[in-house]
């Protein structure tokens, strides 16, 4: 069983009462220390079969499944190879972003105990099998969602995305997330000028400009 010392620093010392909120906010990436993940029966996710995305979704029931996957177009030409802790969600986002012509078929290798290093190695091996790397991998992914968080947002409507951001903000406030104070909106020119005058007043012990502004003179 992993101890706090075995976990990445952002996952250490999380109070039990806040664990659910913490997982919601910070669980978008593949967990190096993940416990057993949901898998599905062969051949849908054995790594050897290529099937249409529609057939794969029908066979797996869109269950949450971690693994390496390759997306192929209508001509079965590989377009993108990656890994995800929720392949179904990642595929949904790819279809939304790229369209069904580009995202028509898929090859999936499920991982019962997903580890980033092992999945990255398999991705590299699948790419090495090809004469040329898939176009989606040549520029680091480009418009292809690379994390579950990105995939979820890509698959959302504008209204769903706004609701999600509002919910995330409320949860972060509930957890007293101290990074919120660092996310300041850009200051207006007027506010910048006001702060410069205050700084000058403190430094030079001359409050005349500040007093004039306050009195409207």
Number of strands: 4
The parts where pLDDT drops under 50 for at least 5 residues are: 5-11, 25-36
What is the 3D form?
elongated
Number of helices: 9
* Backbone structural class: alpha+beta
Oligomerization: single chain
Terminal CA distance reads 69 Å
Radius of gyration: 24 Å
- The sequence of SSEs as H and E is HEHEEHEHHHHHH
> Can you give the helix content as a percent range?
40-55%
Our estimate of the beta-strand percent is 5-15%
**Mean pLDDT metric:** 74
Strand order of the largest sheet: 1-4-2-3
User: What kind of sheet is the major sheet?
Assistant: 4 strands, antiparallel
Features:
217 residues; alpha+beta
Can you offer a commentary on this structure?
A hairpin with a 5-residue loop joins β2 and β3 (78-84). The termini are far apart. It is elongated, with a radius of gyration of 24 Å. Residues 5-11 and 25-36 have low confidence and may be disordered. The protein has helices spanning 19-26, 53-60, 87-98, 116-129, 135-138, 148-154, 158-174, 189-204, 208-215; strands at residues 46-52, 67-72, 78-84, 105-110. Strands 1-4-2-3 form a four-stranded antiparallel β-sheet, sandwiched between helices. The chain is of the alpha+beta class. The chain contains nine helices and four strands. Among the domains are: 46-163, no CATH class; 185-217, no CATH class.
């Amino acid at each position: 069983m992993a101890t706090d010392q075995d976990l990445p620093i952002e996952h250490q010392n999380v109070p039990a009462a806040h664990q659910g909120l913490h997982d919601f906010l910070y669980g978008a990436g593949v967990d190096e220390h993940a416990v057993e993940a949901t898998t599905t029966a062969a051949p849908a996710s054995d790594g050897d079969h290529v099937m249409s995305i529609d057939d794969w979704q029908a066979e797996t029931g869109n269950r949450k499944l971690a693994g390496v996957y390759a997306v192929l177009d209508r001509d079965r030409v590989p377009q993108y190879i990656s890994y995800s802790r929720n392949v179904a969600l990642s595929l949904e986002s790819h279809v939304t972003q790229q369209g069904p012509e580009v995202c028509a078929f898929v090859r999936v290798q499920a991982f019962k105990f997903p580890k980033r290093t092992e999945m990255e190695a398999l991705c590299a091996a699948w790419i090495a099998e090809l004469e040329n790397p898939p176009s989606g991998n040549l520029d680091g992914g480009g418009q292809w969602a690379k994390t579950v968080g990105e995939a979820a947002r890509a698959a959302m409507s504008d209204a769903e995305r706004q609701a999600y951001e509002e919910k995330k903000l409320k949860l972060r406030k509930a957890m007293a997330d101290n990074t919120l104070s660092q996310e300041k909106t850009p200051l207006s020119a007027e506010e910048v000028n006001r702060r410069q005058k205050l700084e000058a007043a403190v430094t030079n012990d001359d409050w005349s400009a500040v007093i004039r502004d306050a009195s409207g003179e």
